[in-house]
Amino acid sequence: MSRISTNEQPDPAKLFQRMCIDGTRFQAQKFLSALGDYEGLTEALKQGEEIAPSYLPLLSDTFSAFFQNRAKIKTSPPEDLEQHRQILEMVLGLREYEELHTVSRLDFFASAAATRAFSDELIKLIKKRKEEQRREGGDEQQPLGIDPDTLRWAARKSLKKGLEEAQEAKQAVESFGREEGGLKRIPITEQFALANLLTKNAKIKEIIRMLGRMKLEALSVRRSKVTHSTPVRSGVETTGLEGIDRILPEELADIALGKSGEERFLRKLSEEELLAYSYKKPVQQSHGPILVAVDGSGSMQGIREVWAKALAIAAFLQAKKEKRKAYGIIFGASENEVFEIDMNKLVDLATASFHMGTNFEPPLKWAEEKFKEIPKADFLFITDGICELSPEGRKTFLSAKSQAGARCFSVLIGSEATETVRQFSDTVFSLPTTPTAREGGQILAEI
Known about the structure:
By secondary structure, the chain is an alpha/beta fold. It folds into 3 domains: 189 residues; 49 residues, no CATH class; 155 residues, Rossmann fold. It is built from 18 helices and 10 strands. α17 links the parallel β9 and β10. α3 packs parallel to α7, α4 packs across α7 and α7 runs antiparallel to α8. The relative contact order is 0.08.
């Protein structure tokens, strides 16, 4: 059977004939669609062809195994691809495959992301092992040129990597592809562009990981605080059977008086004349908009920047879930260093920084203007900086905040010098140099 040339556009029908996973040419078409849109898959194919000339069918099989609802090997796979069949049969029997499949099943984007990550990790491990075997004089006639035990180990490790990166890619799309009212259906090409960015930009990947942990911690903190709202007793009313649990003790005392008391109690019950407590539910507190200002100065680089941006993104997602307006900026050393965040392009927040100094006046002025437009806002101010605030600047900010009924939550990272931020904040969170997801979750639960 002829090989497929990857120098020209592969034909889905021909590619399917060269595959070992059963199904229809539709699965080959889906893979080729992903290959055309996803730069990461194209790079994976180029890398794979360095260790196996027929890597295209194997990569397509890998995608199909992840995407299909229930993947199985063809009854008569291509005879010259017996090594591929052995590899796929081994992969389909691994526990790690089942775990990954729960995330990738019938999910085009997750399957493509997992395929790229699985392939990258597998190729890296195989190249390393083949080099060791060449030095040791090993047998390269085995599947992909390495011994079965090593291949099984490499496959398991690669499946774990595929699961990890598929989950991160899906979370990234969910985080950066939201608009007010829920998840925005962003084009698949943009999803793949984001997946490529995750692969190449370690900072975004770190932010996504911190964001996930922070959201879980916030959920845990909120659950620990949940108490069923207790109705407030507001007086006395008459009731019948439906309010039997609220009747006054003296009405129950009638039952103890014997037959006459029981008859009186039953008569009042049937006529709905039993005295009972009346209750009213407490008024639910409504939340205003969320404003976030993130320090983008040079001293924030590293874990502080990752943590601060994860907290900001988590706050924006929380606002949208609660149907609250949300606005944000990254600020630096001057009025010219204020970057307004587009709520529908949160990936911009993850990549934007000034790396200069810190000035509190511009972000506080920005918040003042927002207070005039939107009352009762919660302003989250995140910084590691220590700088002076003019008396006039403090006075006008406090006045605007008071008139709008707003609150200011300041987060100071890696500094105990809280005097300045306490001058304009309702609450100050003073955190260590390397704040944790737990601390982020606790702050989210407050706003």
